[in-house]
Design brief:
alpha/beta; binds adenosine monophosphate
Length: 190
């Protein structure tokens, strides 16, 4: 199986690239952000709980996020691999993911980080906010908070997989196709 983590700060283009990668490599795309938004839209208990954190640009607690992720994995037993997008975002989530995969005698093949400077991220997120309908993309202070949370709580995930030789960085500025080619090169060198 090909089990990828598409990693990077908010606005780095993970969702856009994940869609293209899914098509090319026939993998299951699991975006925890999308799953939360789906629950929010449908007013589920999970959505209502998650909203308290998402609206402030904070992380949803690990226990809630990991439970949701496990459920999605269990619902799709016959896949060729996964693209995890926006997950894991904490070391506890890394550990839970590794345990979940090892129960299937699987592991993470590679973590690819989209490297984008903060100034470009802020510009992109504000631009996306005009059409995404996402409240967390519209407010500059929520965006700042998301970037800070990324640096403090989420960046250590890069090091977690770097230590086992699985993390690489890809320059995430350029056209969608240029970035996609850089990602594909990394995937084909696994
Ligand atoms: P995203 O669409 O990945 O930018 O996620 C939007 C929001 O959903 C984040 O700011 C968090 O509040 C929440 N979220 C998404 N994925 C996770 C995760 N793996 N752990 C905790 N919170 C998450």
């Amino acid at each position: 199986m090909l089990n990828l983590i598409l990693f990077g700060p908010p606005g780095s283009g993970k969702g856009t690239q994940a869609e293209k990668l899914v098509e090319k490599y026939n993998l299951l795309h699991i975006s925890t952000g999308d799953l939360f938004r789906f629950n929010l839209k449908n007013n589920t208990a999970l959505g209502i709980e998650a909203k308290r954190y998402i609206d402030k640009g904070q992380l949803v607690p690990d226990e809630v996020t990991i439970r949701m992720l496990k459920q999605k994995v269990d619902e799709n037993p016959d896949v060729k691999g996964y693209i995890f997008d926006g997950f894991p975002r904490t070391i506890a989530q890394c550990e839970a993911l590794d345990t979940l995969l090892s129960e299937k005698e699987e592991s993470i093949s590679k973590l690819v980080m989209l490297d984008v400077p903060d100034s470009v991220l802020i510009e992109r997120l504000l631009e996306r906010g005009k059409t995404s309908g996402r409240a967390d993309d519209l407010d500059q202070s929520i965006i700042q908070n998301r970037l800070e949370v990324y640096k403090k709580e989420t960046f250590p995930v890069f090091d977690f997989y770097f230590n086992s030789g699985h993390s690489v960085k890809v320059w995430g500025v350029g056209t969608i196709d240029m970035i996609f080619d850089r990602l594909s090169l990394e995937i084909e060198s696994i």
